[in-house]
Amino acid sequence: MNEEKDTIELMENGHSIYLPHLSIDCVIFGYHEQQLKVLLLKWKNRNRWSLPGGFIKNEENLRTAASRILKERTGLDDIFLQQFHTFGEPTRSERSPEDVEHLSSITNTPLDMEHWLLKRTVSICYYAVTEFSKVDPQPDFLSEQCEWQEIDRLPELIFDHRDMIEEALKTLRLHIYHQPIGYNLLSEKFTLPEIHDLYETILGKALDRRNFAKKLLSLGLIKKLNERKSIGAHRSPYLYKFDKRKYEKALKSGIVLVI
Amino acid sequence: MNEEKDTIELMENGHSIYLPHLSIDCVIFGYHEQQLKVLLLKWKNRNRWSLPGGFIKNEENLRTAASRILKERTGLDDIFLQQFHTFGEPTRSERSPEDVEHLSSITNTPLDMEHWLLKRTVSICYYAVTEFSKVDPQPDFLSEQCEWQEIDRLPELIFDHRDMIEEALKTLRLHIYHQPIGYNLLSEKFTLPEIHDLYETILGKALDRRNFAKKLLSLGLIKKLNERKSIGAHRSPYLYKFDKRKYEKALKSGIVLVI
DNA sequence: TTTTCATTGCGTAAAAATTACGGAATAATA
DNA sequence: TATTATTCCGTAATTTTTACGCAATGAAAA
Fold this sequence. Notes:
Two copies of one chain form a homodimer.
Chain A: H1 3-12, H2 14-17, E1 22-32, E2 35-43, E3 49-50, E4 53-54, H3 62-74, E5 80-87, H4 97-107, E6 122-129, E7 143-150, H5 161-175, H6 181-185, E8 190-191, H7 192-203, H8 209-219, E9 222-228, E10 238-242, H9 244-252
Parallel strand pairs in A: 1-6
Antiparallel strand pairs in A: 1-2, 1-4, 2-3, 2-7, 5-6, 8-10, 9-10
The structure holds a DNA duplex.
């Protein structure tokens, strides 16, 4: 990350590189220690956090822009991502004089009220799900930290980013039935208790573990492996993996994976 | 509709009234004679059709803009509408020299390639559902007709508007289980066969009419009226209406109205 | 070595929902 | 009066969901 170069590109040339008035924000979900987490950035010299985001280059596809932004923060290609809502309150990106001063100071750029970055911005939002352990969080030049935060204990967020996370979670809960959420959040090999915990965490409610397992196995989308996972002073659970072909076929045909 | 005034407002002053690079397109569903229909506009002097759409005023909320656009085409306030996808292929709004010439001629405005209307535009899309009979279709100054078209027999559409309709229909099919679709598409009073036909049409598959009726009645969301609808040489079906309070309560609580 | 504890695997059974389908009631027409 | 076709109001078999039990297991404690 070349901070000086990025700063100039955004602050001074951004108005001709990027589509004005439009941005992209990403809600990146990960799952770790039975907690749904979301990747956030902490602004330099501020106790304010934000979602990973950025702008759309003039000749860039929306999805390509979202993927690029994701790659920059996570180090990963080909993350599963879905557009879920476009936020556009006229005042959503307004900054107080203090905020403007702060932005000016961390970018070493004088800002007047006509600067393209201070204009009204409509944000096209995507959610992404990926394996927690594969992510290598990378702050951008405006931030000092890029970290996973628990969905139930979010820090103070800028603009409408908290609303974005809430809307993304609602969408995730609906999509869990016909999008490859579990498939992308879990390791390639997982146990029944692990996928059970994941669904309980996402749906925010208790599911009977015996009925859940029975139903999931009856769908025929996962395969039991000849491997068990040692978990200490208890019976070692079997490992499973998704039958990729059957799973993708089911998704394509729109079969509702109701649990 | 004052054509000259609207033309000047859009073509000459639009760049300062509206947010550039952003538009709104609406997929308006109606239901008539057991057919799902969508409201379309036919361009002047052209056999090309488009969805109702428009731009967002600088201080206008996205949803407010969508409502305004809907009102202008349908004459109705408070139509049920939901944002469903933002389309933004870089080339989606490109026009051939022929198309530019055509636009110039129907607006009596010379257009050079720097005109704000010819720039790349990202479109925020909404679907709406409303009672077919209440709509008073109104073409805008670029169009000579505003008409309902059957979802299964669409005319030639500009840009990615066919994709928009397909995506809207997919969303409608998912939303039918937890959004007031039937409630907004049917008359206040309807019969069991009418709502059964509506669901079959939207879902695109046969539903057993005896099981459908039984299930719908078991949800407790509709009330049988002391009225029947004479349909000629057959037994007159009873009329029903939604129990508004129970229905809204069910929607709020997220009860899935699975049929 | 035996016992304890807590998790996982593999069920059983009752309740609820879904699915398939029949025939009486009805109303205009022949 | 008989015919036709639609609606109403079912019954019953099948499937799914829900609730829950207990044996197998494995590390740690006694």
